[in-house]
Amino acid sequence: MLFNSLEFVIFFPCTVFFYFIIKDKYKNLWLLFTSYFFYMCWNPKYAALLAAATSAAYFSGLYLEQKERKKINLAIILLIIFSGLIYFKYTNFFIEQLNCIRQILGKKPKRELDIILPVGISFFTFQAAGYLIDVYKREITAEKNFIRFALFISFFPQLVAGPIERGKTLLNQFDKPKTFNPDRIFHGLVIMLWGFFLKIVIADRCAIIADHCFEHYSDLNGIQLIAGACAFSFQIYCDFMGYSTIARGGAKVLGINLTDNFRMPYFSPSIKEFWKRWHISLSYWLRDYLYIPLGGSRGTKLLTYRNLLITFMISGLWHGAGWNYVCWGGLHALYIITGEQLKTFNQKVLSFFKIDPKSVPFIVFKRIYIYFLAAFAWIFFRSQNVSAAVSYIRNCLNLENIGLIFSDNISALNIGINQRDFNILIFTLAILFCVSLIREIKKDAYIVFIKQAPIFRLMCYWVLLFLIIFSLGLSNREFIYFQF
Fold it and tell me: In whole angstroms, what separates CA 389 from the centre of its chain?
């Protein structure tokens, strides 16, 4: 079941309605039932996988709490927890690498398996693993109530694409059933409306351009391909943030607060800052459960850089079983390492040219520069493989017909989108920029918005709603992160 589907429009109000009218002792059970129904709408048989992963994590948590802390116990349990993810996501990747070796040796390649990746397996596996590590480290106590723990793993708003929640922030929110609160529900619905706007109106229009350019990169020139890369950068941002925003809004309607997964990452002044703002729940998961245990920044610079490279390459592999994803993660690590190495040199250059690093022009320049670094890395993420990414980048250097960028007719640029949708895209990106700027300055755009005149707020609701309804014909796409 997609958030941007008719089924969800029926499912969500029914879930909320019965949640608030049934007795408190049955509320968590109701949410658990609806969460499994939500998941089974993709493939009913994978509900058994979710239940098995939940049961394994539940009993493992009780075991880790009772036994003496031994790393071998945790390692065996984590291997069991990750076994499903490894099988479904990486089996064919391993076979593909093995076949490369067999080809060199002149042996017959092995046949890849017919495996369908269960939706959300990367997310609920990481959530379960994080919980078990926290229990092992005695940062939380193991959850004794199986219903509450199962709901923690399968809570439907964030089940298939995050955010990846921690036991200490989400489990205790299921302790007390929530009461009906009109203000909170309205707040949640407004957040959901913004999420639908990001996905249906912006992301799905950017997808038209990105799909066209990445599928026909060999026939297009540099200006078109740069437009395609930029379009994908906003597609994946608005698509993933759209999902997270709908999830946060839906959870808030039910009285649950989820992690804010995005904080204007394209306004970041550095790549290091970018990763504090992009997919925040995954970034902090990797920091706490991988980077720091590897040694973090406690050793020499060389060891710190090694830890960074390992962490980011694993982050890339988490996103997809392909070397292009590993390159994407490794490229971000190299960005950070290079930035650290050039820090002193950059300060000397600024001092020599008497440039104030706090001046508005320099701040704007730096943020634009970081955006283009991120957009460049996205080329590896979006391409089918490393070879296609390299070819795409090479073709970006072909800047013939550069004058087409100033054409009034978007069809002359040939990037797969018609004039009407292009105009809507530019208008809605301007809305996104204004809201992001308010969030960057004021931190909470909703508080700023709610203080405005009622007629202005009403007009904004209707504009967003109209644009969403008008764009529904485009919205037949799954969310990008469902494949991870």
Answer: 21
Which residue has 């040796």 as its token pair? 105
Phi, psi dihedral angles at 444 (to 5 degrees): -120, 100
Contact 325, 381 (CB under 8 A): yes
Identify which of 129, 193, 140, 127 has the alpha carbon closest to the alpha carbon of residue 166. Answer: 127
Active-site residue identified among 187, 212, 279, 319: 319
Which tens digits make up the pLDDT trace of 132-142?
A: 999 999 999 99
- Our answer to whether residue 319 is catalytic in this structure is yes
More confident residue, 303 or 474: 303
**What is the spatial distance between Cα 104 and Cα 59, in angstroms, rounded to a whole number?**
45
Through-space distance between the first and last CA atoms of the chain, rounded to whole angstroms: 16
* C-alpha span between 125 and 18 (Å, rounded): 29
Neighbours of 457 (CB within 10 A): 14
In whole angstroms, what separates CA 51 from the centre of its chain? 24
Which residue is it, tokens 């992963």?
A: 53
Compute the distance between CA of residue 138 and CA of residue 46 in angstroms, rounded to an integer: 32
Nearest to 272 by CA among 343, 325, 360, 327: 343
Contacts of 64 (CB under 8 A, 6+ apart): 73, 74, 77, 132, 135, 136, 142
Cα torsion for 42, 44, 46, 50, to the nearest 10°? 100
160 DSSP 8-state letter: T
Residue 124 to residue 191: CA distance in whole angstroms: 23
Domain spans of the chain, in order of start: 19-177, 184-483
Per-residue pLDDT tens digits for 374-415:
999 999 999 999 999 999 999 998 877 666 665 666 665 778
Distance between CA atoms of 264 and 434, rounded to whole angstroms?
11
Coil, helix or strand at residue 95: helix
> What's the confidence (pLDDT) of residue 412?
57
Question: What's residue 401's pLDDT?
Answer: 64
CA–CA distance from 110 to each of 34, 114, 323 (Å)? Answer: 41, 13, 20
Handedness of CA 225, 227, 232, 237 (dihedral sign): positive
Please state whether the peptide bond connecting residue 163 to the residue before it is cis, i.e. omega within 30 degrees of 0.
Answer: yes
The closest of 179, 165, 180 to 128, measured between CA atoms, is 165
Q: What is the pLDDT of residues 239-252, one digit of tens each?
A: 999 999 999 999 99
Determine if the peptide bond prior to 118 is cis (ω within 30°): no
CA nearest 437: which of 363, 372, 374, 373? 363
How far apart are the C-alpha atoms of 370 and 367, rounded to whole Å? 5
Residue 165 to residue 158: CA distance in whole angstroms: 9
Task: Categorize the per-residue pLDDT at 128 as very low, low, confident or very high, splitting at 50, 70 and 90.
Answer: very high
